[in-house]
Write a structure and sequence with these properties.
Blueprint (H helix, E strand, L loop, with lengths): L1 H4 L6 H28 L3 H22 L2 H11 L4 H4 L2 H16 L8 H31 L2 E3 L10 H13 L33 E3 L3 H10 L3 H12 L10 H7 L1
Length: about 250
């Protein structure tokens, strides 16, 4: 970035080409953090992703608020011959970067007080977005509902039943004769009391794993259970301690 800011020749090869290469490398790193946080929704991963983003945000802000770089892009865009010397896609990329830097507040560089307020509000917005996403992720991971009557699961795919039985086993739930009923007609004999959960005999723990949730909403024959699942899913992170209502109000 230092080398790019010290450039004096405002041409596509000397400015835009290295800028796009630099930002592509930056986005590859930030994308990795976002992907890891999305596929592994745990408190530890969320904290690690937050620390990584804080380190990267400083570079992103410096890049997008660089007055030297912004001046180079303006010089590259302003001549009337620009449309002759560059393709339409190049002009689109150039306009994109000019708009991106203006959105990041580069035009406030001449007023330090306004720039400081802008950066403070940007940081607060980023923290609120991270808090919102974290509350939704934790609310999603926290939900579980255990079913013991197989009649409520007629028609649900066996792969989904197996996933729900595995979720029940993770919570140390067991089969109990007389209060856990199998998917009918049962093809196996009832297990002994205290046996681990099975896809056929249960118990079954429903979670908000996308595969399980979508399958239950599509195939579960019990309307009441589908209603509970739907309302619980839509109301995630709307109650303490994971209440997003004040977060949204502050963002607005």
């Amino acid at each position: 970035l230092d080398k790019l800011e010290s450039e004096t020749n405002a041409t596509w090869i000397r400015v835009m080409a290295p800028l796009e290469l630099l930002y592509d490398s930056y986005e590859r790193v930030t994308g990795t953090f976002e992907l890891l946080a999305a596929v592994n929704q745990t408190l530890e991963m969320d904290a690690a992703a937050g620390q990584g983003k804080e380190l990267l945000n400083g570079f992103g802000r410096r890049l997008q608020q660089s007055t030297a770089l912004y001046a180079l892009l303006l010089r590259l865009r302003q001549p009337w011959t620009t449309w002759v010397r560059h393709s339409f896609s190049q002009l689109r990329a150039l306009d994109y970067w000019l708009a991106k830097m203006r959105k990041a507040g580069v035009h406030l560089a001449s007023c330090p007080a306004q720039m400081a307020d802008f950066n403070r509000l940007s940081d607060e917005e980023a923290n609120l977005k991270r808090q919102y996403a974290g509350n939704v992720a934790q609310g999603t991971a926290a939900f579980h509902m255990t079913l013991r009557n197989g009649a409520h699961l007629q028609g649900v795919p066996r792969s989904t039943l197996a996933a729900m039985a595995a979720a029940a086993q993770e919570r140390n739930l067991t089969y109990g004769r007389g209060w856990t009923w199998a998917i009918t007609p049962a093809s196996t004999v009832p297990p002994r009391d205290g046996a681990p959960p099975t896809p056929e005999w249960g118990p079954w723990t429903v979670t908000f794993d996308p595969w399980v949730y979508n399958s239950m909403m599509a195939y579960c024959p019990d309307r009441r259970i589908r209603q509970i699942l739907y309302q619980s899913y839509e109301n995630r992170a709307s109650q303490a301690p994971l209440d997003n209502v004040p977060v949204v109000e502050r963002m607005l």
